[in-house]
Structures
1.
Amino acid sequence: MKKILLCMGVWLGVVSACKNPIDGLEIRFKKPYPVALDVQYYTAAGDSVPTSTQVILTGPDADRLITTVNTKKIKVSSDGALYLSIDSLGPRPSPEKPLRYTVVVKSPGFVDAILPVEMKRDVQRSAVMIMQRVGAQSPVSIAQTNADGQGALNREWSFETSTPILSGQSPAQALLPKGTQLKDVQGAVVSGTLTARFQSVDITKPLTTFLNNPITNQTIVKPLLPGGAAAGANQQLTQVAGAFLLQLHNDQYQLVKTLSQPMQVRFSVSPQLYHPMERRAVQAGDAIPLYSYDAATEQWQTETPGKLQKSANDGLEYVAELSHLSLWVAGFTKQKCDTGPSFKIKSSLPATNLQYRAEVINDATGARLQVFNTTVNNGEVIKISGLESDQFVRLRLNDVLGTAVVNSALVNGCSGEVQEVDVSSFKKQIQKCPNGPGFKIRSVLPNSDYRYSFTVVNAETNAQLQSFQTTANNNEIIRLSGLDSDQKVRLRIADIVSSAVAVSEPVDACAGNTEQVIDITSFKIPPQRCAASPVFRISSTLPNSDRRYSFEVIDAETKGRIQFFQTTANNGELVRLGGFFDNTGKIQLRIYDIVSAAQVLSGVVESCSNVTLTLVLENFKTPPPKCTVPLGFRVKSILPSSSAAYQVQVINAANGGVMQSFSSTINNGQVININGLYSEETVRLRIMDNLSGAVALSAAVGGCNTTLQEIDVSSFKKPILKCPSPLTFSVRSSLPVSGRIYNGEVIRVSDNTVLQTFTTSLNNGNVIRINGLDAEQNVRLRIYDSQSTAIANSASVDACDAGTQIIDVTSFRVPPDIKPGQVLITLQFPCNELDKTKLPTLVLYGRFRETGTLQWKSLPNLAYAEGKSSFSILTDLLEVGKTYDFQAGPAPGYYSFSENAYKLEKADWIIRIKTDEYCK
């Protein structure tokens, strides 16, 4: 914010000195009249207007105009501002009895700035006028003629703009027929010497016209529909054919509004102009929309379109007939569509929730305007919104299962019609069957636990879909699952004994209620499980141990592995085999020494034999015993004791392999015990630092060493410990209950660092919980009042304190109630209370504009409230998220506060004033 200048006193509209020179003198002021009209004047170069200006007020209600301090000394201020009020001697403006007047500002070397005003509401109007220089280089063409006492032209009157409408085009030519009667807005004739001011308008350059250009961002705001019955939608100009401004007045500045005969206007048009509705270049006979703007009422009107015709030089020219005078714009526009097109799906696909990619394609450019996902079930309607009137689009649907693409017919963006889109060419979705078919086994074979090989195949392609093994006893049901839909399948069973194969009939993969019989009566009796199995008795001279050895059952002929398992192998232990069938044949048992490379292989034995064989562990070495006590490591640490867990690993010292992994605290003096080691193992203990990546590694030590080892973690970083529970504050408040949000901070006491920022409501008894604080520090809570300079600070407290602290905000001021859509503007002084006797005014006038625009808009008055330290106002004129310039001062035209390019990010706009001159 710029440095605030607080010279705010007003004496008859003149700013007083910053400090009253007479001690003890209290100056009181008459309440100013509300502003009815404020006009900001600029030159075409964007500068303030010259000081030598004259203000003339004309029109039927001109005598009602006064200054804001009830004088007739009306003038333009040094910064180009003019403020007018309406006296209290007559009725206030209304639609039934509007006030009409004309404001003329004359200055040597400039075209007279003439602004007609028609006020239908008692609401302040704001306008911008551009002072244009006269002379050969002026963009304004000036012509004169006479009208008789009945306002009729005594001759045909033609004139043209001084510059072309658009680059490469001709100037606009206007023709008023002889005898045309001219009348003002009330129907009174306009006679005498007439002055015409005719100018082409560049709608992108608002400083080049003698009236404020009302077009912002190429938008014509809610023009009245033909006939003026109601306001239509905003029209966005896409191509301008031409724009021009014509003003006619007599010597008394009585402005012509209506014409008894239409005035013809023509100008050349580029043949490259594109017709968006016909989707081609324009040609003779085409109509181009036409809009007019009435500066007096600030209202756009949709007019009868002009048409294109062949010009004398075989080009194209735009011709329009105008029945009144205004600012005119001819061009193609677009608007947001209230109703967009709909597309009804035609499909032979089964209903599904599968999502397909849909694209709305601009037919002219091929650009994708919208992309979304949708289902495409038969009869479904896809509605498109958010399109614009100049857009012709197609709906494109892409097959998610294949490469097919379907495009709709071409349709206008504002069309409410329903187009049909046929997606029958899309691939049928392959879904997983929730339930598959069942197959009932028909068999004459005795029941067996023998498992047959089953194969599920596609009935058409014979492709294998699934394979599994299970029993196949009579009346058993084999139920399939997990199959893709949209196919028929067969179940195939192969006989394990013979070459017979049983195949089912084709059945739908999703036929969950189907139970088809599959006949395997031709199968041979399957192998039967052995009633007995061989037993091997271990013969060993080794001491008993819990060490587990690897055993392998192999086929005696092929040496292929049949079974593999691990178990102990102490002297006299029995190893009983099982799970063999009568076709398993001859087997052998092999056992491996875990210390040496020795192995023992039994003799050959029938898999179903009920024999006990001795297996002698020859040449086996005695395995090292398991350690009887754990291996211990004492932690050496300079870190504070904590519950922080670190990753710990037991490492094989010979090959670096990880033998064990677990988590543990590492407080100084703590012993970490390692169990389950064997005497032949040499290990290291490794601990990883969570914060720095440092690694602590012990010396290599035997697994059964009984001496307590040391592992040094002194290089580890001190862990950042978080408080186990939130720090809690209870609010002590006298504020009314509300959802209003206040800004708060958590401050570290030692260095005033802000640790956290937050927002909170401040209802009495509310609990504020602060999570995630680091331990071993003292903090305090700080909350800022949004209505004053008050700050609430809690007492200093340990960040991990488990109690409930108090934050007292009873010094905070009661805020006004901000409703949705409102903004509270507060000028906040750096004190608890202002000294009313020092204040030169108790009411401030404010105005604002969106940053980057010219036109200022007035705000309601900012009022001082007794006992406060601020001026404030609630308004619905501002919008959160936009960027504004703001000014305030003791009277209209006298602004001593300024705030530039401020982005309004919340409904509280607090402008902090840096001077304490007016504080108690």
2.
Amino acid sequence: MEKLQRFLLPRAGEPFDVRMLYLIESERNHHRATWESRTSLSIPARSEVSFQTYFNAFPASYWRRWSQLDSVVLRLEVTGTVRVDVFRSKIDGARIAVEGAVVSNDAIEFELSLQPFEDGGWLWYEITTETDATIANAGWFAPCAPGPQTLPNGEKVGPFEPRVTVGIPTFNRPADAVAALEALASDPEVDAIIDTVIMPDQGNKHPADEPGYAAATAAFGDRFFEFRQGNLGGSGGYSRIMYEALGGVDGDKPAGAKKSPYILYMDDDIAIEPDSVLRALQVARYAKSPILVGGQMLNLQERSHLHTMGEVIGRHDFMWTSAPHVHYDHDFSAHPLSDRGENANPIDARNPKVVTDSIDLHRRIDAEFNGWWMCMIPRVVAEEIGQPLPLFIKWDDAEYGLRARKHGYPTATWPGIAIWHMAWSDKDDAIDWQAYFHLRNRLVVAANYHEGPVDGIIKSMQKATFKHLLCLEYSTVAIQNEAMKDFLAGPDHFFDILETSLPRIAAIRKTYSDAVVLPTAADLPAPSGIPGVPIQDIGGRLAPIKKAVWLAKGLKHSLSKADPKHYEVPQANLAPVEARWFSLSRLDGATVTTADGRGVVYRKRNLEQAKELLNESRRLQKEVAQRFEELKRSYRAAHAEMTSRKAWSEIFEPGEES
């Protein structure tokens, strides 16, 4: 048997909400379970413990859909006398008893069919102790070794050895980069399957200067490779990893000498559960056909929260969104997998906007791509479909998932395989410098994959421009106009601007007050308010009927001339949640706190500037609509060259023979 998923316990000192990702103890227990290692649990007599948890339950529906297996084996070693009960869930979260037995001072195994899991469901076990007992060396196992995999053209490859090259690009996060290396080296089972670690360093604060770097890299010895290069963004960092892992243009570069069957992408600013590496590798090896295996994202700041079960591209506006039957930001401490809500309503009867249970998490979710915070790519896929597009940041991972799928290699975003990453709610990436890359790259990817009318994309762009202008986010509109210009210029210049786009965009933003971060609103005069409106009533949320009223009032105010005194004295100091179109459209000047809470920006209404930006935006949006079919042909014709190792070699190794 091969181990698929280890039984895991929380690290020492983890708070209760994080413990809920690993085990759930009955409220009737008189004493809590204890552990000294992460794989051995001591449970007091007359206690009950459930492992219907994110990291210890088995996502059976995913194994049923994607793997070669018809069954899975649960195995555990018991000291003392306990009853072990195995359960499964249905698509609506209903709990079904499967098998159970009393065991004393022995190992026990259950071979469990994967047949009942076509659309959804998990397997898990629960322990009821008669005496003080210890559970050790537990896990979910495959009853057989992996067999060959079938390529889209019908050919067979593999089976592949359990070996992986891990790539971690880093940019000015030296402490995080060292911590990631330490986490990989800390687990002997994980370390044993790592062929090579590749770290492109794109910043001016180098991990090599960080305490702990020497020890962390020494753990890998000659398996560690660092490459310093200019800031080429995430796509440049991840492309360097793939380029080196595949041995460069000729396949003979030393970082790729071991020819790992798998390449694992990971961000530098994450905390990882090391067993996720082993789990992703086994999923990839046991897949019927080669697939991309995506790790899910837990919130680094609220560590019991799951970002999403899977994402897709909405074809009406070509924007990433949650897959059907998925909600964002699920809190396992409030809603464990067992939570079916008070009424346990069927999924289709639920209000998708009000999530008060965990029913969604029992349905198998089919994603179209996975973020590169953690994603495992089979070597055979990388060799066939090429390098990432030179997009700097944003959409490079989505494009790669769409490309792989087009070639017959789907992406599976896998529960129980996860990292912790900072939440998007603490970033202003929809309005800061990243807004340029959001729009430009979205259009590039749409040109490569969107079919049908472009109307939905244009309407969403028009709506966004209108909203940004009402919110006095002039810098955002200015750089989105630059994004459309660069898209309209065609694909031939993308490598040329890979390293220069960010400085250019940063220079444009400096000319707008809404992009200049000030230390604190306390350094400015106290807000003057709006005559007749209490300051506390300026921001906040509005009911739909009030929004219609305030849209009319906001438009009327926005089209009037601003009072210049509010360029010096703000009318309000708004928190991010209050900085909405229906509040800012009533103001001539206001400070807005940044998403991370570290400073404020001073947004100032300027009618002439808004008109100029709007006119330019409308002209460019019209041109995008008119030329989209032509541009689709251009970008698709250039795609193979833009994703070739030869083209990237001229960026990584300029002047060298290739």
